[in-house]
Amino acid sequence: MIGRITDIQRFSIHDGPGIRTTAFLKGCTLHCPWCHNPETVRSEPEVLHYPERCIGCGRCVAICPHFSLDDDGHHYERTDCPRCREAARGCPSGALQFTGRTVRPEELAAELLRDRLFFDESGGGVTISGGEPLAQAEFTIRTLEILRSESVHICLDTAADGDGAAVERLLPLVDIFLVDCKETRPDPHLALTGRPLEAVCANLRLMAERGAKIHLRCPIVPGVNDDPEHLAGIGRLADSLAGIREVHLLPFHRTGAAKWAALGRSFRYAALDPPAADLVARWADAVGRTTDKPIVTPPRAQSAR
């Protein structure tokens, strides 16, 4: 059994309690246009291209004909080519970056357990994120079984868009489900993410009915999903399920824009400014009117995946 990941982030403090190590799986069922980890959306390996970092060494040109150097700089004829990926792996300056390495559950668990001292000291643990962990359900389950056997605290960062049978098997392996709620209304959810809302709601109900601890994480984009109806809907959803312990409002930011460009894609919200603190406070107030659950806003701008 193998899975595909994009990164392992150590000393993470925004993906659950304490100091955590977060593994980002590659491949997502949703296609949110504000995603700040766009390299996790497609399941296939990819090459990120940052031409401004090129030092002109010519290694990539010698490996693959899809790269070239001239007086105007470094160029990449983007294509799905194994030699492109080989060149990216060997780039010394970071102008080319390969993303999407394959690992076995045992290998990933061993990498994550290297930080166990920090987990034990801080009350932290491991977070499996993405992408969408449910898109690699068997790999995720096996990895978490190994970590659970080592008594590691586990968070699963998921949009809950997946097979309910997989969620059922994950329930005894996860301490906190960090569930990203993109929209509370079916039509906007489908329009923004490309996926229906029904499976998300069904899996949320399943988690809550089985006593799971859930943190609802809601990315809010000004002018896109910050209208009163959706904000009130977040509060009503949180209030309707006892398993939801906290609601996290995650304001839009542009930190992923460079990665969109490096992947050769257009970022829809490149000109959109992150919301000011007073606007975020008004969002929190609007959500709080329809729920008694704690409303959490980040100390700095961040968005859910």
**CATH structural fold name of the largest domain:** TIM Barrel
Strands ordered across the widest β-sheet: 7-1-2-8-9-10-11-12-13
Secondary-structure content class: alpha/beta
Total count of strands: 13
Question: What percent of residues adopt helix (DSSP H or I)?
Answer: 25-40%
| Rg estimate, integer Å | 20 Å
* Helix-strand pattern: EEEHEEHEEHHEHEHEHHEHEHHE
How many strands, what sense, and barrel or not for the largest sheet? 9 strands, mixed
Q: Kindly give the count of domains.
A: 2
Q: Mean pLDDT across all residues, rounded?
A: 95
Supply the CATH class of the largest domain: Alpha Beta
Can you name the CATH architecture of the largest domain?
Answer: Alpha-Beta Barrel
CATH superfamily of the largest domain: Aldolase class I
Count of DSSP H/I helices: 11
Distance between the termini: 26 Å
Any idea what the shape is? globular
Beta fraction: 15-25%
Uncertain parts: none
Question: Can you walk through the features of this model?
Answer:
This protein folds into 2 domains: 3-42 and 101-296, Aldolase class I (TIM Barrel, Alpha-Beta Barrel), CATH 3.20.20; 49-99, Alpha-Beta Plaits, CATH 3.30.70.20. The protein has 305 residues and is an alpha/beta fold. Strands 7-1-2-8-9-10-11-12-13 form a 9-stranded mixed beta sheet. It has a two-stranded antiparallel ribbon with strand order 3-6. The chain is 33% helix and 22% strand. The longest helix has 13 residues, at 137-149. Helix 3 crosses helix 5 (137-149) and helix 9 crosses helix 11.
